[in-house]
Amino acid sequence: MQLHGRIHTLPKHIKQFIAAFVVVLSIGYGTGLLFVGQTDTTTPHGIEENYLGNEDVADPEVMKFKKGEREMLTILHTHILSISFIFFFLGGLLALTSLPQKWKAFLMIEPFVSIVFTFGGIYLMWQGISWMKYVVMISGTVMTVVYVVGAGAVLIQLFKKQ
User: Which H or E element spans position 111?
Assistant: First the structure.
């Protein structure tokens, strides 16, 4: 079955349906990023403090405590599953575009690598490997850039003439 470029041949109402889905998905992804900003986890220090606490700091602005094992497993479980589904659906839509094959493959597969590095890194950092905060920050950034490029590509391809 040939999927390459199939997005251009879809009926108008299906294209509108897909566009609505990608826009709403992007709003959800964006609110998740806003939440990350609210928890001060956009820096290596903030990432570490969010999961390991800041009880040893003399006068912290906001007191944070190390997350317990149950809370960590809940965070990892829900994020790995939900973000995997986000990228599975987005990857399926990317498969229908007429982007070059290598770009499509990268945009479809890389997010799953970033998911493993981001959330595996969070777990390893929580276990005491503090330098993983840099891996978490880099892989999380790459995952977000790939999301924006992928979602943008799908939206552009939906309304681009073949």
Answer: helix 101-126
